[in-house]
Amino acid sequence: MWAEREHRSLGAGARQSVGRVAPTQVAPTEDVLFSETYMPVTTKHMIWAAALMGAAVASTVVVAADHDEADTASFSDAAADIGDLYAFHEGERLTLILTFDGYKLKSETPSYDPDVLYGFHIDTNADNVADHEIWARFGENAAGEWGVQIQGIPGFEGALVGPVDEVVSDDEAAVQVFGGFRDDPFFFDLQGFKDTLMTGTLGFDPTRDFVAAKNTGAIVVEFDRAALSSESVAVWATTGRR
Q1: C-alpha span between 165 and 172 (Å, rounded)
Q2: Rounded distance, CA 133 to CA 121, Å?
């Protein structure tokens, strides 16, 4: 299945068929998933507050990035290593994206791990306490097929469960989610960064992208922004390992 993977955008796209399986076969049940204890592994430490609901522009995008800390912090837990956190809205729809395990070639096997719990935390009243928490976890069925389960989406009761690399939606609640690997949207000129540090002179090349043609794990959640009942929010992401 992995050999068929191509580099695809994290943006909206057609549903992808990878061999659909029944939700109960893909991921652990709700009770199993959310009753166990998880030790915190990483937090996207650039916690940001943004007026995501503002109408001044068609779409406001906020990004928190944290790449390559593994080299400096001896952190090698790829499945739990948060790369980027994105938040943006288009019209009345709000999208949150968490990436992990970056720099993957399309021929490499993704690092899905059923023991890692991913979280989006949303503060709607500026008290630095999450008012909404969205939880995601990957699971594998008896046939070796991976799926994702996402729960806690504002405005939606229960969990969405489906295969990886495929958009899973509930039309009635107007929510959709994605878990899988896609072309990394992060852009960075690593060589230019190193040259700038060494010489003290800006040496960036806007056409040189260190992560070009690289895949990253991604968890994407889209829902109606009205479910937050706030004109501005703070968002951060965490991972935990049981």
Answers
A1: 22
A2: 5
Determine the Cα–Cα distance for residues 180 and 110; give it in Å rounded to an integer. Answer: 8
Q: How far apart are CA 235 and CA 63, in angstroms?
A: 10
Gap between the Cα atoms of 233 and 158, Å rounded: 23
C-alpha triplet 49, 133, 152: angle, nearest 5°: 135
Query: What is the average pLDDT value for the chain, to the nearest integer?
Result: 74
Span 20-65, pLDDT tens digits:
233 333 333 333 344 445 555 555 443 444 444 443 333 445 545 5
Task: Name the residue with tokens 């989006």.
Answer: 120
Q: Cβ neighbours of residue 152 under 8 Å, at least 6 residues apart?
A: 132, 133, 134, 135
Whether the model pTM is above 0.90: no
